[in-house]
Amino acid sequence: MEKNSDAARQHPQSLKDLFVTFTVMALQGFGGVLTVAQRELVEKKRWMTNAEFVEEWAVAQIMPGPNIINLCIMLGGRYFGLRGVLASIAGMLVVPLLLLLLLALVYAQFSSHPGVVGALRGMGAVAAGMIVASGIKMIPSQFKNPMGRLACLVLGIASFSAIALMRWPLVYLLLGLGPLAYYLTYRKLSE
Known about the structure:
Layout: H1 15-28, H2 34-44, H3 50-62, H4 67-110, H5 114-142, H6 149-165, H7 170-190
């Protein structure tokens, strides 16, 4: 049974709740927001189950634009329509943009300092570790996928190999494995 059942499901209480939640996510999301989004939306806020998060994130990834902004649009629109979309996008962009402008001014002054260079290299390793941790957290939701565990495992390994090892462009993967995954899911659901 999924940790977050429909009975335990929460939803944003207001546009301010959407704005603040996405602002908090954006301010924590150095190197990417995937880990923070999963923790905030699934574990803390309970606006989604882990399986829903994986599905919505998959849709957000294949849409043009930044993945997290796409997810903001979907969630904001689901709960509050256009006003929700605007509130969630503003939450992701306004405060972080102001902070980024301030940091850019500071960075321009200290960019060649060895401590700053080393800190930025270290942050890259931490960001990579956070992405791997998020991927591992999402694995259990694939056990409930209609395709079955074996098909999910094979497609996951094929996707990883194509992107990480063979360095194929994402569009090739979407056009190749995407229709295959769609077909396998459709076939299983039709049985």
